[in-house]
User: What shape does this take?
Amino acid sequence: MGTIDFDGLAAALAVHGLIPRGGIDFAKGETAPPGPSGASARAVLLVGHAGSSIWPHFQAWRATQPAGLADPLDAWSRQVIGAVAVRFGARAVSPSDQPWLPFQAWAMRAEGLRPSPLGLLMHPVWGLWHAFRGALLFDNALERPRNPDSLHHPCDACIGKPCLKACPVAAHAGGGFDYPACLGHVRSPSGSACASGGCLDRRACPVGTEYRYEPAQQAFHMAAFASPSIASAPTSGG
Assistant: This one.
């Protein structure tokens, strides 16, 4: 098993607006998904993005695909990350794989992130404007310095919690997420601002505003959320 070419891997992902995120080596005896060999993986490296870095690449790809393609962002992510996995001797997995893989737990462990009051993982620089699009499983350890055990968590110093007050139906104000209320609002005429511009609670967060998704990207995610075919799944960020 050779050493992972992290520079080459990062360059291959950057072509698509993606970046290698945190990674962890699984402890001996720890339950882990199969790696590329079929045996339990030794390590996982998360793949994602910050801000709208993927958007032009995804849009260019989408223009070449059949109209009405189901879950296009998931399809694009699988295709792109899958090709990188083959090139670098890894196995690609997705947040939408079933049974669900613990992407959020991996991210918290690998990057020291913690959830915001909205449930999305808060990044001290990117705020809520980042996501995980997949992960690479390896048969060998990462053999690189570990990410810090914890990062500055901006929510601890946020007194006003504006992210809990902007939603017209108070979907996050009750100590959890009122999914039916949110979905009903977004699908209604009164929810047009959310449907076209993104979640108002998310947009109210003052951290990482320069990484806020562009309007077309936010509208895309909200349309996917409000789709009649939506199915519940663990979030890796939108």
Summary: Residues 6-153 form one domain. The chain has a mean pLDDT of 91.
